[in-house]
Design goal:
Serine Threonine Protein Phosphatase 5, Tetratricopeptide repeat
Length: about 110
């Protein structure tokens, strides 16, 4: 796993503007249970590439894992808006399910 992280970090240094590399880095840190670093990278991704709709589902899940329910709900909701704007029906359904499950467990 460490080799994968090193490889992704090298790719990021070569092309920091590529949203997929940033996304892959965040997911790798999440897999390594470095949720703080994953959260930082997801936040950076949302700020720099707000239409990269795949971010919102995974970012929300990290926020749930780190016990930030209000922030998770906001990220899921923002992702729903982006998915709707982009007509990304799959992302919309996934985000809707995540938010619904999250809201159901909150009550």
């Amino acid at each position: 796993m460490e080799n994968r992280l090193k490889h992704l970090l090298n790719l990021y240094r070569e092309g920091p503007e590529d949203p997929f590399i940033l996304y892959a880095l965040a997911k790798e840190y999440e897999k390594q249970n470095d949720l703080k670093k994953a959260e930082e990278l997801f936040e950076q991704l949302v700020e720099a590439h707000p239409d990269y709709v795949g971010t919102y589902y995974h970012y929300g899940a990290v926020l749930e894992k780190t016990n930030q329910p209000e922030k998770a709900a906001k990220i899921y909701s923002t992702g729903l808006e982006i998915a709707q704007k982009l007509n990304d029906h799959l992302a919309y359904r996934e985000l809707f399910a995540a938010l619904s499950k999250f809201e159901d467990s909150d009550s």
